[in-house]
Amino acid sequence: MFSVDGCLHRYCFSCMKQHVEVKLLQGVVVKCPHEGCKNEVNIDSYGKFLAPKVIKKVSQRIKEASIPVTEKVYCPFPRCSALMSKSEVLEYSKNAYVGAKQPGARKCIKCHYYFCINCKVPWHHNMTCSDYKRSNPYPCTEDAKLKSLVKKNQWRQCVKCNHMIELAEGCYHMRCRCGYEFCYTCGAEWKNKKATCSCPIWTERNIIYTRREVRQRRG
Asked: What does DSSP assign to residue 85?
């Protein structure tokens, strides 16, 4: 049996494993499954029933939840994408020469490359943000390819952090990793856990699987 720190509610390891995995899919911080209990499950105890890869995801969720939406910054380099707060990355960058000369320049705390916090792109030396945007509508070939894929696959871009989101399955109520919630169909914001549009919340093809598909997923 697993005992939740603080409240001491007890559950079997199998149930706790499923509970944590579901909360991760929902993109929320894991709390005690007991009804009405608000105690967070201590990440140090996850090793008793979760694989290291899943524990890493939980750590990311906890950090994301601890940073307000307006303060979140993601490294624009695809191989990094580290999450930082604006104050955290500013403190890390303030002693760098390029940061002292150019207010928009920041240095990623993980990969240590410079990026522009205003444009959300790798740092553009000797160019203002306006000049950069005019001369680089698609900063690199990969961005042009991405735009083509977005249109082809009908992906959505979060208006808060600019990350692309693809709906693989489930309802059209989307919650980006930055915390912003919106309708996948039209992009309208969700406020107070309610839709601000009249789009249908789900379609059968995204919710129900055939028996063959279920067997394939389990296999």
From this structure: E
**Can you list the positions of beta strands (E) in 44-92?**
72-74, 83-85
Q: Catalytic residue at 171?
A: yes
Whether residue 73 contacts residue 93, with contact meaning beta carbons closer than 8 Å, is answered with no
Give the type of residue at 193.
K
DSSP 12: -
Q: Tens digits of per-residue pLDDT, 57-99?
A: 777 777 777 788 788 888 988 788 888 998 888 888 887 655 4
Q: What is the mean pLDDT of residues 160-184?
A: 81
What's the CA angle centered on 213, arms 207 and 216, to 5 degrees?
A: 135
Tokens representing residue 28 in the block: 């929320």
Coil, strand or helix at 143: helix
- The one catalytic residue among 171, 178, 186, 199: 171
All residues at 6 or more sequence positions from 49 whose CB lies less than 8 Å from its CB, including other chains: 2, 13, 14, 16, 17, 20
Measured CA to CA, the distance from residue 196 to residue 50 in angstroms comes to: 37
Measured CA to CA in angstroms, residue 204 lies from 152, 171, 185, 208 at distances of: 22, 9, 15, 6
Whether the model pTM is above 0.70: no
**Is the domain defined by 2-66 classed in CATH 3.30.40.10?**
yes
- Domain ranges in the chain are 2-66, 69-135, 153-207
Average pLDDT of every residue of the chain: 79
Instruction: Indicate the SS3 state at residue 182.
Output: strand
- The candidate with the shortest Cα–Cα distance to 163, out of 79, 54, 75, 70, is 75
